[in-house]
Amino acid sequence: MAHIHKSRRHGDGGIDQRGDRFRLRWRIGNRRHSKTIIGTAREARAELRRILGDADRGLRVVPGKLTLGVYIEEWLAGDTALAAKTKERYLQLARQQILPHLGACSLQDLRPAQVAEWHTLLLKSGGAGGKPLGARTVGHCHRLLHKALERAVSLELVARNVVHTVRPPKVDTKEIEILDRARIDAILAALEGKELHSIVSLALATGLRRGELCGLAWGAVDLDKAELRVERSLEQTQAGLRFKGPKTRSGRRTISLAASTVELIRAHRRQQAEQRLKLGMGRITDEDLVFARADGSPYPPNNLSRDWSRLRTGVAFHSLRHWHASALIASGLDVVAVSKRLGHSSPALTLSVYSHLFQGNDRRAAEAIEKALGSSLGPKFT
């Protein structure tokens, strides 16, 4: 390299400086390697120490030309463990929020400062048309990048996950809007006699997710025992519809049904049986779907959301699940029981979503202690 002003030696490596550019040189076995960074002499020395330290620990320190963008695209294209819907969402986030800003960066050269600057950029103008992006969405992007780099660490493509040291932006906690009883009654009244009435009613009564309702088969419903089993859900992706099992063991669950819910499902089954008879489709079998199109084919989850939106309730279909959870909590049911019924992976997840609703049970807790201890805690005078 011409015009080298300074040269320093550090163990098995060296640094050549020209202005604010530093060429790091080191040896692994009989092979020589180098990389150039822009910064200060202190940063250059720290980077070389890190490289030599990683080499001593047997970590990959050979500079590569693999960019973050190429790495993420190859990972998502080849990872068969990811659910199709999850992969679509990851690709969307990566292509819209990660690759345009960090994709050209070398996978090994990404630094915490760049991640922090990326957060700031997304919050300021990362949305459609250069609008600000919400902190919650930026958090999703952050977690995707973290996941990608964790995999890179496990493959020894990088020595560390630089996202570890950068916190995602704080999300302002907004209490989930819970439909009140008056609005629920109004919605059900408006749906009386319409096709959506049964599926909306069952969503309120069980808290099932949209895909779980659309994937529910008659073989998973036992009206004599007043229960149903959640064994799968219907997923809609760009490739089409497919049934899939729950993501976690807790997602596979049995839900008890109230007497009124059993009567609701019985009535729905009778109506479906009559319709099938008129169309010459034969009797209902265990494989048939509880909620299906007129020809018996699956009812796409996106169609359910579309039909729901036409009611102009101002809330998403998922709000029915939130209402169910709020009703359970208001009844005094403990967080573990609520979590199991909702199919959450852990009670911690339930608390993270509905913690503000559990706070209302604290007065009940004080009353329970009073009842249990009576006057035992009162002052004693002699």
How is this structure best described in words?
The chain is an alpha+beta fold and 382 residues long. The protein folds into three domains: 6-56; 68-165, DNA polymerase, domain 1 (Orthogonal Bundle); 181-331, hpI Integrase, Chain A (Orthogonal Bundle). Helices cover 47% and strands 12% of the residues. It has helices at 41-56, 68-78, 84-102, 112-125, 135-154, 181-191, 196-206, 210-214, 259-278, 301-309, 319-330, 335-342, 347-358, 362-373; strands at 6-10, 13-18, 21-28, 31-38, 221-222, 227-230, 233-237, 240-244, 253-256. The strands form three sheets. The chain has a four-stranded antiparallel β-sheet with strand order 1-2-3-4, with helices on one face. Helix 3 (84-102) crosses helix 4 (112-125) and helix 7 (196-206) packs antiparallel against helix 9. Residues 1-11 have low confidence and may be disordered.
Question: So what's the oligomer here?
Answer: single chain
CATH topology description of the largest domain: hpI Integrase, Chain A
Order of helices and strands: EEEEHHHHHHHHEEEEEHHHHHH
- State the end-to-end distance: 94 Å
CATH class of the largest domain: Mainly Alpha
Unreliable stretches, pLDDT < 50, 5 or more residues? Answer: 1-11
Shape: elongated
Q: What percent of residues are in strands? A: 5-15%
Main β-sheet description: 4 strands, antiparallel
* Second CATH tier, the architecture of the largest domain: Orthogonal Bundle
